[in-house]
Write a structure and sequence with these properties.
With 500 residues, the chain is α/β, with parallel strands linked by helices. The protein folds into 2 domains: 193 residues, no CATH class; 286 residues, tm_1862 like domain (pyruvate-formate lyase- activating enzyme, Alpha-Beta Horseshoe), CATH 3.80.30. Helix content is 41%, strand content 13%. It has 19 helices and 14 strands. It has a 6-stranded parallel β-sheet with strand order 2-1-3-4-5-6. The protein has a 3-stranded parallel β-sheet with strand order 7-10-11, with helices on one face. A 3-stranded parallel β-sheet has the order 12-13-14. The N and C termini lie far apart (66 Å). The structure holds iron/sulfur cluster (SF4). Iron/sulfur cluster binds next to loops.
């Protein structure tokens, strides 16, 4: 008897990324720049499969949906979280539902769009999703296909593409409450909508993962109360997972062989905050409790905010000490942070909450202070800036260029991405910047950012990649050297062409 419900994802999400989520961003590079055989070995090695074809380490979001199904009447005989390589064996005549998680199903997400505008080509995640959907077993047995995950909005705004891909229903938002009901309807041959908003999980309900996750990532908080207008989490209610639940999820990961934990949250410093103020004791206690679990060798966090760090430097110091950062054991960790702009005007218009408790006009100083606090405490800020926000003028771009240049002394990464109007955000009706819409000043900003990155990449990789196999180290150093030449020249040409 086969599985009624098969949960899976495209191949770019079925990897442990050599134990470093940072490599996962490489999936935003378009297909064709690097040959597949090389790309997947270097950045996105194939995730391990269990003997039954299930994926050993899966992304946390899909684990949460799996957990919600198991807590809502389905059994392990009904569902499997499948490795995409085994899809032809696991989708059978018994399979009625195929549920796919995707970060960027059409390759039009902000990071992918930026790179396709720079290099041309198609987003790798879109290519791999199409390949998955063309699997012979899916064509043959025709299960009803659901798609969720961070990129689901793309198929809602492009219904023709949804149809063309053969996807029956798109779930935008949280899946834990919505998926069990929806799947029960589908199994009873009832009508299902082509697109639905997932019901936001609130209150004290937590679906605890029942299997290990990629790089041991577990969800410490969900949502973000800073409410930036371009951002999807801005619409969610912030909630913190109790330490007791997290400890149990760490145990599941340790039993499966993980040795470290990434605490996920849009701003980890807002763990158990009652608003936008850092609850220093709760955050430090969280890191202490998790790091002291026997078997845990390291702990990191996915995202943090510069305003939290600037408003509570003592919290950053305490976390750094707790995690023994700056020692030979753990030289550095990296957190993702958002700069977005150097313009107080754009902060005030689109993301006032990002600066809180500081004022919008203080933003450039908040960013500089935040970078200093993080790097003094051995945390590398991996940041984003956004080009083409609605209402942006040359003066705003110039202010961002100045800020990027002022950040040069700090060991960090600055990734410029192009504004994309995403559905479910407050800017969903705005226009995303088009390929020929980038001005010479935008390209100057790209140049300042990538010059910063190529200055710091070799220095960061020296410690960050010190446990990588020698062959991978050699490959990465070669890519950094040739990438510096290739990318910077490409941007300089764009400046010349758009100026003439
Ligand atoms: S601070 Fe970050 S996660 Fe929060 S709303 Fe703004 S962009 Fe989104």
């Amino acid at each position: 008897m086969g599985y009624k419900i098969v949960l899976t994802m495209d191949r770019t999400m079925a990897s442990d990324y050599h134990g470093s989520l940072f490599y996962g961003f490489s999936a935003c590079f378009p297909q064709g720049i690097l040959p597949d055989w090389f790309f997947y070995r270097a950045f996105c090695p194939n995730g391990k499969a269990n003997p039954d074809g299930s994926l050993r380490f899966a992304n946390c979001g899909t684990r949460k949906v799996e957990s919600a199904l198991l807590d809502n009447g389905f059994t392990k005989n009904d569902i499997i979280l499948a490795h995409p390589d085994y899809i032809d064996e696991l989708v059978t005549e018994d399979t009625k539902i195929l549920s796919i998680s995707s970060n960027d199903p059409l390759g039009i997400g902000p990071a992918t769009s930026t790179f396709t505008k720079l290099f041309g080509g198609e987003g790798r995640m879109a290519v791999k999703l199409r390949e998955l959907l063309n699997s012979p077993s899916i064509k043959r047995y025709k299960p009803r296909i659901f798609l969720g995950g961070p990129g689901a909005w793309q198929l809602r705004v492009n219904p023709d593409k949804r149809k063309e891909l053969g996807i029956n229903c798109v779930v935008v938002g949280d899946g834990e409450i919505t998926a069990p009901d929806l799947f029960k309807k589908a199994l009873n041959n009832k009508d299902i909508p082509k697109s639905i908003n997932g019901i936001t999980l609130d209150g004290d309900r937590f679906f605890k993962i029942k299997g290990p996750t990629i790089t041991g990532l577990i969800e410490a908080t969900r949502g973000c109360a800073r409410s930036c207008k371009f951002c999807v989490p801005s619409l969610k209610k912030i909630r913190s997972t109790p330490v007791s639940v997290l400890k149990n999820e760490v145990k599941i990961n340790l039993e499966a062989g993980q040795r470290g934990v990434i605490l996920h949250g849009e701003d980890i410093f807002l763990y158990q905050s009652d608003g936008l103020r850092v609850n220093g004791d709760a955050v430090v206690n969280l890191f202490k409790e998790i790091y002291s679990i026997p078997g845990v060798k390291w702990v990191s966090a996915s995202h943090a905010s510069l305003s939290s760090a600037s408003s509570s430097p003592r919290t950053v110091e305490k976390i750094s000490k707790t995690l023994e950062l700056g020692t030979n054991l753990h030289p550095t960790k990296s957190f993702q942070v958002g700069i977005e702009t150097g313009s107080p005007k754009l902060i005030s218009t689109h993301m006032k909450g990002k600066a809180y408790p500081f004022k919008a006009e203080e933003w450039p100083d908040v960013v500089k202070d935040g970078f200093k606090i993080f790097t003094d405490n051995h945390i590398i800020p991996c940041s984003t800036i956004i080009l083409g926000l609605p209402g942006e003028t040359d003066d705003d771009i110039q202010k961002t260029i100045n800020l990027v240049k002022a950040l040069r002394p700090y060991k960090s990464v600055i990734v410029p991405i192009i504004f994309t109007a995403m559905q479910t955000t407050k800017l969903e009706n705005e226009k995303s910047i088009q390929k020929d819409g980038l001005t010479p000043l935008h390209w100057e900003l790209m140049l300042a950012s990538w010059e910063h990155n190529f200055y710091w990449f070799p220095r960061i990789y020296k410690t960050y990649g010190r446990e990588n196999p020698l062959i991978l180290k050699t490959v990465i150093h070669t890519i950094i050297k040739s990438g510096k030449f290739y990318i910077l020249n490409k941007i300089r040409k764009k400046i010349k062409n758009t100026s003439s």
